[in-house]
Amino acid sequence: MRIDVLTIFPGMFQGPLTESLIHKAREKKLLDIRLSDIRSFTEDKHRSVDNRPFGGGPGMVMAPQPLVDALHASGVKARAAKPWPAHNRPLVVFMSPQGKKLDQPLAEKLAQYKQLVLICGRYEGIDERVMKWVHQEVSIGDFVLTGGELPAMVLIDCLARFVPGVVKEAGSVQQDSFYNGLLDHPHYTRPEVYKNLKVPKELLSGNHQLVQAWRREQSLKATYIKRPDLLKTANLSSADKEILIKIRTKK
């Protein structure tokens, strides 16, 4: 998977992209992450990427020319197709607090593309005309940051888990919270007893079916307590619904 990041602060990405699984994935050529400094596409001697907003008001706005030229250099030759283009064409994503909130289904959809181009905005935002090249706006939450770099890092980390070979055991991805619409179950490791706190006996039973049943119940319980809103859209079996009735009754 190739990810192009358009930013005026490429140095911000050095830590997150040179450590842990992302670093290993880049070394193995599983992830091709390219940082493009928008300033290198400016046409004036001051390398200006922003200007005053028409109509007045506070702050500055990122100008269209450097951004669009950076998009073209990343392989985006035409304006955004509606609906999204084929998976072998670059998909342009603008990191914006006005965008669709990032969740597991959206991440899975984005991960199907061979190339993503992420635009990291700054100042008061980008010139609206650049949006003609954007396929999707993505937000990581209902709050405003100083720029789109940190949200882009979050999105990259999220997408990396879907790339085959990045996570050593593919099964661990399928057990992640939100993957199946529910929160993940609790996890335990050695020793069996720590400061008089014991590992649940079900996990020590050696009975695979018992372990799976316990994990499913704990997943449902965690979701009910922490994120009950997820239960409205989760794909629940009749057995799951019976478990939830017992959980509600116990509460």
Describe the structure.
This protein is an alpha/beta fold. It folds into two domains: 159 residues, Alpha/beta knot (3-Layer(aba) Sandwich), CATH 3.40.1280; 73 residues, Trp Operon Repressor, Chain A (Orthogonal Bundle). 31% of the residues lie in helices and 16% in strands. The chain has eight helices and nine strands. A five-stranded parallel beta sheet has the order 2-1-6-5-7. Strands 3-4 form a two-stranded antiparallel ribbon. α4 links the parallel β5 and β6. α7 packs across α8. The model has no long low-confidence stretch (mean pLDDT 94).
List the helices and strands and how they pair.
Blueprint: E1 2-7, H1 14-17, H2 20-27, E2 32-37, E3 50-51, E4 61-62, H3 64-73, E5 91-101, H4 104-110, E6 115-120, E7 136-139, H5 149-160, H6 170-174, E8 193-194, E9 197-198, H7 208-226, H8 238-250
Parallel strand pairs: 1-2, 1-6, 5-6, 5-7
Antiparallel strand pairs: 3-4, 8-9
Task: Please supply descriptive tags for the structure shown above.
251 residues, 2 domains, Alpha/beta knot, two-stranded antiparallel ribbon, alpha/beta, five-stranded parallel sheet
State the secondary-structure class.
alpha/beta
Question: What separation lies between the terminal Cα atoms?
Answer: 45 Å
Could you give me the name of the CATH homologous superfamily of the largest domain? SPOUT methyltransferase, trefoil knot domain
Please tally the helical runs, counting DSSP H or I stretches of 4 or more residues: 8
Summarize the structure.
By secondary structure, the protein is an alpha/beta fold.
